[in-house]
Design goal:
It is a single chain. By secondary structure, the chain is mostly helical. It has 14 helices and no strands. It has helices at 2-33, 37-42, 54-62, 65-96, 102-112, 117-130, 137-160, 165-173, 178-189, 191-207, 210-215, 224-234, 239-259, 261-270. α7 runs antiparallel to α10. It is globular and about 75 Å long.
Length: 275
């Protein structure tokens, strides 16, 4: 009993410290956002006496956060929907259909996971500029799909491999075409994986700064995260307003994680089940 109790403490203490290190920046940012500029200059670490919500209103109105939020919603929603469509179709084909070269295609998708955006950033920006896709929703959506599609295909393929192939064979015997099997059988069965992958891709796209900054350089087309980074220069002497902008950008992701944390954890583990 004594050894078991000490073992639990040895696990609980590092986990508690890790949780504190994760939560503290958010709490510190929220505390700073509720201060006046004078309070922050005098003591940035003290707790604020009153909650000054007008800082959030200032960040929302004067910095154009509403426009940035709309841009992020449009780009992230369309990107995730396209990723789920292409990823589920590719995952079904690579896991259940028997054709020559499927293994090579799957390995090619895995190789795409190891190519960081910084490596292809310059030639990609040149191609997008020549195609007149810079500062367009379509350009950033295509970049997100290209960057996160290998991850989506990997997880969907791994999940669909857990489905017995006899189900697909029975559906084909009943007269369903390949597209019928995908629409009537594989999509309903893949709903848990689609939900998990959709949440993860939403987090990836929402939190991105570099790709959005390269593809959307003008102020009118900035995403929310890029808009928050621009607040640092605009309000360099007003840190509470800058902290309010950070809270606005973090709140949608935080709510998504709090309500769907179980699905996020399942999505992280989905690729380790088989394949």
């Amino acid at each position: 009993m004594s050894h078991s109790r000490w073992g639990r403490w040895l696990v609980a203490i590092p986990m508690a410290l890790l949780a504190l290190a994760t939560v503290y920046p958010l709490l510190f940012t929220g505390n700073v956002a509720m201060k006046t500029r004078r309070e922050y200059i005098l003591d940035r670490f003290s707790l604020t006496d009153t909650l000054r919500w007008e800082n959030i209103g200032t960040a929302w109105d004067s910095a154009g956060m509403g426009r940035y939020l709309l841009n992020s919603i449009i780009v992230v929603t369309l990107s995730v929907l396209l990723l789920l469509l292409l990823g589920s179709m590719a995952g079904f084909a690579l896991s259940q259909l028997r054709f020559r070269g499927s293994s090579a295609i799957f390995l090619g998708c895995l190789a795409g996971l190891f190519v960081p955006f910084q490596v292809i950033m310059v030639p990609l920006a040149r191609i997008m500029a020549d195609s007149r896709l810079i500062d367009t929703y379509l350009g950033l959506i295509l970049v997100y799909v290209a960057q996160f599609l290998p991850f989506t295909v990997f997880l969907m393929t791994s999940y669909y491999k857990t489905i017995p192939p006899e189900i697909v064979d029975a559906a084909r015997i009943d007269g369903n075409s390949v597209y019928g099997v995908y629409r009537r059988i594989m999509l309903p069965l893949g709903t848990p994986a689609l939900l998990s992958v959709g949440i993860l891709n939403t987090l990836f796209c929402w939190n991105d700064v570099l790709m959005a900054l390269v593809m959307m350089p003008s102020a009118d087309h900035r995403t929310l995260m890029v808009g928050v980074t621009s607040l640092k220069g605009q309000y360099s002497d007003d840190i509470p307003t800058f902290a309010s902008g950070v809270l606005i950008a973090a709140l949608p992701v935080l709510l998504l994680y709090l309500f769907l944390q179980r699905q996020i954890a399942e999505g992280v583990a989905a690729g380790s089940t088989k394949g």
